[in-house]
Amino acid sequence: MISLFFGGLMLFAVGGSVYAAINRHVSPTTAIVIALLGIAVGGSYGYWLGGPCELTVDERQVRFSPPIGRVRSFPRSRLATIVLVRAVKATASTVEFRAGDGMVLLTTDTMFGRAHFEQLADYLHVPLQWGP
Asked: Do 8 and 45 touch, CB atoms closer than 8 A?
């Protein structure tokens, strides 16, 4: 299972604020305000969106559960390829799960890491490709 937690936003804001304050890029007051803002935004995402995005694979199916919206799944036996369509540095922003005939079975627009999909492709014994 691959999970994406919004708590990462809080850690990023707090860590960035502490780094900026230590290296005197901003005043301590500004760093505290940025950290508190990050905690407030990340906490509200976690509270109102209800939890992480999850991509779960078992013997029968591949299932994507977003925090808002419907759960989507397809039979694991139909999966032929995982395609990373758009990428920003090391993070995939759109990923397509495709059948043998090229039909898109599932598209995710979340920010799972590329390494997660490399491990998933190895586990599923399917190729991982970079798309257009």
From this structure: no
